[in-house]
Amino acid sequence: MAIKSHNKISAEFSMASMSNLVFLLLIFFVLTSTIIAPNAIKLLLPSGTGQTISKQSTFVYINNQNQFFVNKTPASILNLQQLLSQSLIGQTEGVIVLQIDRNVPMQSFVSVIDVVNEMNKVMKTKHKVILATTPKE
Q1: Most buried of the four, 69, 100, 102, 104, by CB within 10 Å?
Q2: What is the pTM of this model?
């Protein structure tokens, strides 16, 4: 008379809990990676020591209303290249001093650099852009 046990231990492993865990980790990493954005960093303008600027420099000023001025002449981003080329006429290695307010978006700064780079390509010149800083106290 052989007594057989009716309670057999199953050797199978349920993957449902493991897939739930992996799915929750995936959601966690996707959500935390979108929260950390590079545009959330606030930039402060650097301060520097006194620098000598030549009188042949061209000044571009951007105020806090995002208005452009070339040597105190009002300009827009569309005619900025024309005004810069007029003020740098005859110079192959001019210096453009960029003065911006603290509240100006960085896109305006990059737009001025793009205009100067395009002007350098078209006119085959080597104009440089210098960012003006506030003096150290």
Answers
A1: 100
A2: 0.58
